[in-house]
Amino acid sequence: MMRQYELVEKVSRYNPAVDEALLNRAYVYAMRAHGSQKRASGDPYFSHPLEVASILTDLRLDDATIAVALLHDTIEDTEATREEIDRLFGEDIGKLVDGLTKLKKLDFITSEAKQGENLRKLFLAISDDVRVLLVKLADRVHNMRTLGAMREDKRQRIAQETMEIYAPLAGRIGMQDMRDELEDLAFAILDPERRQMIQDRLDEQLEQSDAIIGTIIETLQAKLAEYGLASEVTGRQKRAYSIYQKMLRKGLSFEQLSDLYGFRIIVSNAAACYRALGIVHTTWQCVPERFKDYISVPKENDYQSLHTTVIGPYSRRVELQIRTQAMHDVAEYGIAAHGFYKDRASEDGRAMQELRKESLAYAWLRRTVESLNGDDTAEEFLDNTKLELFRDQVFCFTPKGRVIALPRGATPIDFAYAVHTQIGDTCVGAKIDGQLMPLLTELRNGNQVEIITSKAQVPPPAWEQIARTGKARAAIRRATRLAVQSQYLGLGRSVVERAFERASKPFDVEAIEAVLPKLAHRTVEDVFTAVGRGELASRAVLTAVYPEAKPVDAGPAPVRQEGWFGLEAATSFQFRIPEERAQVDAPASGGMGGDGPPVRGLDETMTVRLHTEEPPIPGDRIVGIVTPGEGVTVYPIHARALAAYENTPERWLDVRWDIDPAADRRFEARLKATTINEPGSLAEVSTIIGKHDANIDNLVMARRGQDFHDLMIEVQVRDARHLHQIITDLRSNKVVSTVERASGEATVDTPDAAGDRAA
User: Fold this and answer.
1) pLDDT, mean over the chain
2) pTM over cut 0.85
3) What phi and psi, each to the nearest 5 degrees, are found at residue 81?
4) What's the CA gap between 49 and 70, in Å, rounded?
5) How far is CA 356 from CA 390, 405, 418, in A?
6) Helical H runs in 503-576?
7) Distance between CA atoms of 229 and 278, rounded to whole angstroms?
8) Which residues are catalytic?
């Protein structure tokens, strides 16, 4: 374990003005606070924060960051408090240590909610000071290096989290070396056999190619020197996980890979980079479509280099990265590299502060933190962050030439939200390279995109499935929430109030507000809306406020019952009239009298039937489809089944209703409804339908969660107006959450629905 004076010496090598007193105080305090605590390996716990501090000294970070590394687990894992840290080390260090402390004392509903809230807290701390992130990443690196002593299930969980969040996060702020190590360490745990196989092959290749690699480096240096260009050329073997990803991405076997080594040419300035590129390309044949210019258009993590692949010495494929030393520092250390220049101007005379202002990695962090101000749940924030972390980029342009970086697969919807949230919310169309194109179009590198907007537009919820960026999805969700909140807020509050009443507990909004972190929602209104939409059970709200409460269940375990008896206790049943209804097949009657469907426009000899899956009713626009040998089937114009006949227009017939006003004829229609799960709700629904002189022909009911039932009801109505009156009355009833006309069989999708139908 590193001694106190050894740590001070490491810092003093790059910072002669080191604050020895601060580091000594932090060292002694952390060592005493952790006391006799042990890690899973049996090592003293204090060895962990000490190693984290050592990792950060390699990044040449300031004294305060090193002190935070020593103290970062004290509030979380010892008796130390934030107040004590503030008093002994100052509020700035106290704030950084607090930002690294997990919210482990809260009782979250799901593990995803806990992970999301901890990530949210981390990003909030990063928004104040990016050094929090640097300490967190160093902490994760050391934990991954020493994960062997953990239980297998815990190793798997931590490795998966590292692969999904922390490794790509390191990459997004430009710390590529740290990302490579984290990915490789996680790969060794998640897929040890494949990783070992690739590593063994790499070791074999190294033995065979070591001399060739040295020769390639010497040849490149000699050729550049021949043209009077001073350079430093290095080469290194790629890591196992990087090789594995390339094999997956390109569908290649290990034997087919020809570029297992990467070479870097470091020159004095940007102009020399392009000069070196010219020398390389005029000396060796370049591989088509393998050149990328990240100097002219840097990546979002500030990465800058020229990339090319040539058929180099010994007819070997040689991957080259050409950059300056400053570019190399940023490529290896990302945001941390900016600290190297904090006391002097950069090579072109700009101050470090200007570099920070123009940093793309800082801009990405700011955008991510801005999303915290939205109303996303913890799980949604976690998903959005993962979306932002995992993405290869395409670069598109606004009409004014502004570069917009987007993930591969992004659409104009993502582009619109990247420009501005208001542009995204009001987007109605897009021109790509001057041509009007669908909003589903996948954008490509170099596209110029012009967004067409309308103040009357509201983003449809379906856009969330189309969007590829976390920012776009979060904005669409916010717009959708605002649109539906008024509908579900009151309903959800009513359901929660009833749950509290049944449990004989007082309903208290302030008490619910106090347990919002447990429920993974930001406001009480969000909780009520989630309950109203069926996303959160009222039981969860009740037990969060009153853990000792025993909620009254609205019904027993799912069962199926025939008939009307016991309906209020049933959670899943199907009711059907005992008589089988005969399919109506009859000659067309010309619309007057007879037993056939009352439609005009057909030959009287034709057999006519109404489509059974999506039955039309008078008032619907209808169309007839001719089937040779079977007759004509009448569909409503909105029927999904009509899509099958789009390429056979000769089978379509123009038909229309011919209803006798004096005849009280009924037609089948289907309703899909969601009702509150409480005694009497089904009776209220059936009473409303009966009040309107409509007959229930079939009903399927199933419980959805703790608070709602889904109903599929077949009713006999006179026409579309009659059906609309029933729907309007149902919607005004307090026990009905939603109701709409439905198509398809009278079934509802539930875990036991298949068993019900088979019974």
Assistant:
1) 78
2) no
3) -120, 160
4) 5
5) 24, 19, 21
6) 509-514, 516-519, 524-532, 538-545
7) 12
8) 76-77
